[in-house]
Amino acid sequence: MGRMRAAFLAAIIGMPIATASGALAETDATITLLAAGCANCHGPDGHSPGAMPTIAGASVDVLKAKLLAFRKDEAPGTTVMVRLAKGFSEEELIALAEHFASLKP
Known about the structure:
Number of domains: 1
Structural class: mainly alpha
Order of helices and strands: HHHHHH
Distance between the termini: 26 Å
Strand content: under 5%
CATH superfamily: Cytochrome c-like domain
Radius of gyration: 14 Å
Number of strands: 0
Shape: globular
CATH architecture: Orthogonal Bundle
Oligomer: single chain
Largest sheet: none
């Protein structure tokens, strides 16, 4: 999801997303919306009920590295994550990594 989609989402829910410097600043509500799609495979709040890895409580550095590798198509042997990650900006992927790392495993 790019800045325009994030801005549209933020406008709908009434949350500002731009800082004084113009950088993307994800709000809790925006992150919650971005993270909702992850539940399809990784379970609610990143707690996988099955074969997919649980991402809640994982290392923020590991999550950032994996998500950015997916986005750059540098993660051999993956299928869906490469396609999904390309739909997010680098800032959004970092925010998602920080969100899931902050959850209890």
